[in-house]
Structure prediction request, 342 residues.
Amino acid sequence: MRGMTLIVKTVTSLVSAFILLYGIYVVLYGHLSPGGGFPGGVILACCLILMVLAFGKKFVDDIVSERAPYLWDCVGALAFLGVALVGYYGGSFFYNFLVSPESHQGAAAAVAGNYRLFSSGIILPCNIAIGIKVAACLVGVFAVLSVFRPEPRSEDPTR
Amino acid sequence: MDITLALYLLIAFMIVAAVIAVEAKDLLSSVISVSAAGAGLSIVFLLLGAPDLAITQVVVEVLSLVILIRATVTRKDTTYDLRPNTFAVAGGLVFCALLCAMCYYAFAHMVPFGQPRMTMGLPYLLNTFERTGAANAVMGTILDFRAYDTLGEATVIFASIIGAYVLLRHVGRKPDARHDTHR
Prediction:
């Protein structure tokens, strides 16, 4: 699979960093604004797939190996389960042991303390784990379906 | 602010797009029509006040459009011919009528919109902000109160993706089977 034209490559190299940044924002601020781990992970996967489509298979083979999506998929799933199991430290499965104590003091203190990145306890690590998992599994599905398949034989003129 | 008219227009657009997606002879047209229906659905979510779902819907729709186009364009023949079968058409009409009748009775006895009989969600909505510290009530529900369900969903996605890898990868496949199956 070859890459696309120079125009597409230039636009992709300008834009892909911002798409990646937006995906990371959606993952990290899922508890404060609409979004969360799943859409953020899909945006990250979209950015990687855009790079695959624009620059071709060779460029991406240097960055991502065929094994990397499976490994990160497993890492994300195990991290989510690990956050759940660490909840036993506070008493039960998925116990939100990291939530800030001032947020239990009533609505006024909650308003002062809640609109922060680390205000919501285990929701942030769960979002990060789900984001990694979703991004890796979608990139892996795309790779398995299109990139790592053998090159079509020469009678196909479009590829 | 009357969004009912906009909702009716969007739903009509989605129905037309879905019918085109089913009936189109060209696979590429079908894929694009499915995406048009999905885009309409994301705008419906946005109008009904569910921005989380709208973001998820539009993003997944874009990704699935890309994957489906990659999967269909590389085929040699992207058209298919489905002859109308009298029995199939008659059966479809009968089941459509049955479904419409069932929907009529179901919606006639439905609880009014916004007044659910089960008030389980009310404590979640009232206490999310103080108990979990999440300003986004959806995220506070699915990752704190209902995190066990989310773990189940993540497990389902994980299992299905691993299954897709195992079926589609080239590692364990016989060399002569490659060129027969990838097209």
In short: Chain B touches chain A through 49 residues (CB under 8 Å).
